[in-house]
């Protein structure tokens, strides 16, 4: 007789999440027929049909919806129980999956990662890059760093650091133009536009005293990757609105100029996002605090409010 295992429960949760037996099999590195066979065995044991199959889509039956709720609760409680036990261990261990915007990863890849893996050799760290805003339906990580919070009550969005975004250009480019006196005049110049996850494409911000102004910008050069935008700016292709922490090294080497002497810089939070659970992931907290205290991603916010 088939007995329900934790792996069966996880498989039901995964299939419901990805919407396909085939995608669930690929995600678990399993033969596709074995996933179908396991679900059939589970349905036979329960005496109900969990998934309605068709050639075009897969959906939960009404019985499947009810069973899924129990499966999600069981998996969450199992994770919480194991997390609580791991947190009592004398030395942090286990797996930590972190996803961050590409510009974050390049900034922290050296000093923070090096320090982290040396201090906590029993933690298996996976760091992946993303160029998208956080999405609750695709959140397969323990932790995400992003410029946009996640508006979902099942997640916590915690302020990681405060960083400025400001206007930058190369000395060579500025030598060819008449220096603008305000951000409004930037629209008449060549621009390198970086599309941010937290802003509508083609919009930059600038702070005038206590007021945040929006600047609609257009360019023949639009990029969704900060490193590419930075390189094009360094090569003299125009003015770009970039985070300060990306530009500090190039400022010191006089390869970039901060325009308007930083008068119109716009401060904003960077976010650490993670699932809301009763027991905090110790490995995740260690990584967050190390990223904060390094100051590499902006001004540390040590007592940040969480939402």
UniProtKB/TrEMBL annotation:
GO molecular function: DNA-binding transcription factor activity; sequence-specific DNA binding
Family: Belongs to the LysR transcriptional regulatory family.
Superkingdom to which the source organism belongs: Bacteria
Protein name from the UniProt record: LysR family transcriptional regulator
Pfam families, per database record: HTH_1 (PF00126), LysR_substrate (PF03466)
All residue ranges annotated as the HTH lysR-type domain in the record: 4-61
Keywords assigned: DNA-binding, Transcription, Transcription regulation
GO BP terms, alphabetized: DNA-templated transcription
Family annotation (InterPro entries): LysR-type_TF_proteobact-type (IPR058163), LysR_HTH_N (IPR000847), LysR_subst-bd (IPR005119), WH-like_DNA-bd_sf (IPR036388), WH_DNA-bd_sf (IPR036390)
């Amino acid at each position: 007789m088939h007995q329900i295992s934790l792996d069966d429960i996880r498989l039901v949760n995964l299939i419901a999440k990805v919407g396909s037996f085939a995608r669930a099999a690929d995600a678990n590195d399993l033969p596709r027929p074995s996933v179908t066979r396991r679900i059939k065995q589970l349905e036979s044991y329960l005496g109900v049909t969990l998934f309605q199959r068709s050639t075009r889509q897969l959906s939960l039956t009404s019985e499947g919806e009810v069973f899924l709720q129990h499966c999600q609760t069981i998996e969450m409680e199992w994770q919480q129980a194991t997390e609580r036990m791991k947190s009592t261990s004398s030395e942090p261990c286990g797996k930590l999956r972190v996803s961050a915007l590409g510009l974050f990863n390049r900034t922290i890849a050296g000093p923070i990662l090096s320090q982290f893996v040396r201090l906590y050799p029993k933690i298996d760290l996976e760091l992946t890059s993303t160029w998208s805003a956080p999405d609750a339906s695709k959140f397969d990580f323990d932790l995400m760093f992003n410029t946009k919070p996640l508006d979902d009550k099942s997640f916590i969005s915690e302020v990681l650091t405060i960083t400025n975004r400001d206007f930058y250009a190369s000395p060579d480019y500025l030598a060819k133009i008449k220096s603008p006196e305000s951000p409004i005049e930037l629209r008449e110049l060549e621009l390198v536009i970086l599309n941010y996850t937290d802003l509508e494409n083609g919009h930059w911000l600038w702070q005038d005293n206590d007021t945040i102004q929006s600047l609609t910008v257009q360019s023949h050069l639009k990029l969704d990757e900060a490193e590419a935008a930075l390189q094009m700016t360094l090569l003299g292709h125009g003015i770009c609105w970039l985070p300060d922490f990306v530009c500090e090294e190039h400022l010191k080497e006089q390869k970039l100029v901060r325009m308007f002497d930083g008068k119109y810089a716009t401060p904003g939070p960077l976010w650490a996002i993670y699932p809301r659970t009763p027991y905090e992931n110790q490995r995740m907290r260690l990584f967050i605090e190390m990223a904060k205290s390094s100051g590499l991603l902006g001004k540390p916010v040590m007592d940040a409010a969480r939402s």
